[in-house]
Amino acid sequence: MLIYFMQSTNKVPRHLFIQQDLLKRIDSGEYKEGQLIPKEHELTEIYQVSRPTVRQAIQSLVNEGYLERRKKRGTIVRLRKINQEFTHVIESYDSEMNRKGLTPVTHVLAFKITKANNEIASQLNLNENDDVYKLVRLRYVGNKPVVLATAYLPYALLPNLLDIDFTTERLYAVLEKMQFPILKIRRKLDVLKADETTAHLLDIDEEDPIFYFHSTAFTKHNIPIEYSISKYRGDINSFVFELNHKA
């Protein structure tokens, strides 16, 4: 496919024509979110221009937030940010995504009984080496991985939890049915670089920034019922914080 500059476009700088044409293809869905656009040398052939002209057009779209350069991969159509509101609302991931008109998908990577280390035990008010459930889920929006979440729950309080299929069941809804509704959550946020495993699972580059949440959820009588570690992609997630005036 070759695109030649017609007489009507002679007054339009070539880099601007390419920029507008690429944007049109993004808006039409020809180049979808997260998809690689053709490489620079391919674009020079498509548009019959020099590589610096192509680079100028691409850089303009990068600067405007439509494209993103990825190490070792190329240039992709940038994913639109998902505003996460769980920082001030207690709501399941599935419920929030559904409310936003998005399609949540959950893959359970691991679900087993293990021993609590010092960190987990201290967050759940347990003794070190007490039994806990470990639930590892990779959460998607459509076909895009968004967050890698690992939850720990006290085994002694939750018999038969391994019988639950958390690809379809919501953890907080299950806890509520078992008479352990989530009434309060304490969260801590860090921004870190993705390690090799996290980068692979979230489909990002190693050392890309991720939002790293430590959360402890409390049920009745201020009993900690869940300790979770969630790693959110930095490129497609943003977070909404709501602050109220203290009287």
Query: Number of DSSP strands?
Result: 10
Number of helices: 7
Largest sheet: 6 strands, antiparallel
| Unreliable sequence segments | 5-9
DSSP helix fraction: 25-40%
Counting structural domains, the number is: 2
CATH topology of the largest domain: Chorismate lyase
* N-to-C SSE string, H for helix and E for strand: HHHEEEHEHEEHEHEEE
Our measurement of the CA-to-CA distance between the termini, rounded to an integer number of angstroms, reads 66 Å
Coarse shape: elongated
Question: Which class of the largest domain in CATH terms?
Answer: Alpha Beta
By CATH's scheme, which homologous superfamily of the largest domain applies?
A: Chorismate lyase-like
Strand ordering within the main sheet: 4-5-6-9-8-7
Features:
247 residues; alpha+beta; Arc Repressor Mutant, subunit A; Chorismate lyase; 2 domains; 6-stranded antiparallel sheet; two-stranded antiparallel ribbon; 26% helix; elongated
Question: What does the model show?
Answer:
There is one protein chain. The protein is an alpha+beta fold. It folds into 2 domains: about 5-75, Arc Repressor Mutant, subunit A (Orthogonal Bundle); about 80-240, 3-Layer(aba) Sandwich (Chorismate lyase). The protein has 7 helices and 10 strands. It has helices at about 15-30, 40-45, 50-65, 95-100, 120-125, 170-175, 195-200; strands at about 65-70, 75, 80-85, 105-115, 130-140, 145-155, 185-195, 210-220, 225-235, 235-240. The strands form 3 sheets. It has a 6-stranded antiparallel sheet. β5 (about 130-140) and β6 form a beta hairpin. α1 packs across α3 (about 50-65) and α2 packs across α3 (about 50-65). The N and C termini lie far apart (about 65 Å). The relative contact order is 0.12. Residues about 5-10 have low confidence and may be disordered. Keywords: DNA-binding, Transcription, Transcription regulation. One of its GO terms (biological process) is negative regulation of DNA-templated transcription. This is Transcriptional regulator. GO terms for molecular function: DNA binding; DNA-binding transcription factor activity. It holds the Pfam family GntR.
